[in-house]
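Changelog-adjacent note: as of this version, every example in the card shows the full chain rather than a window. The one below runs 194 residues end to end.
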Amino acid sequence: MEEGELIKISDLIKVKVYDREGLHIGHVQDLALEGDLSTPYLAYLGLHLHWTDRVGEFELVRPVEDIVLLTPWSQVQDIDEDGIRLNCVHPDIPIVTAKGKCLMRRDVLNKQMLDAAGNRIQRVDDVFIEREGKTLKVIGLEMGLGWLASSSSLQNLMEKLKKKFGGWQDKEMIPWEAVLRIDDDAVVIGEGPE
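Full-length structure tokens:
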């Protein structure tokens, strides 16, 4: 993953995660923003651990082989071709609650997109992100081209969004800035404030 390269969230799911000592401890399950959608930088890594008998300072009743934890993105030491390396040692991984966070896989991927008037557009096929140093920035929502050709209202909305937000490297995507809110059952998009 190179600096400035556009990547899809689905391509990061299952990427290996290593601790500071190089131990393969699991894989990426999700990536999350703070609850405020206006800050597009991913702030948390959803880590699917292979096994553990302890989470941070908490000893578990029995070892588990299937647990997903949310750790702050500040724990990411490096991203390279082999995977993501943390700057902590397993099992001393700082964790945070998922409450109030926007998880890309859980809350956005495959959700129905609606325009501001509540009209159905299509489902979110994927989420584009861009690497900026060690950080990952959400750029936009991928949509299938089949719907674009068949819907004049969607074509009009896309043209308005391209004029307003511009420059998405010729990708057919809804820019992240056009996401007004994420509801339980839909991602609502619009042109935003003028």
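Structural remarks: The two ends are 35 Å apart (CA to CA).
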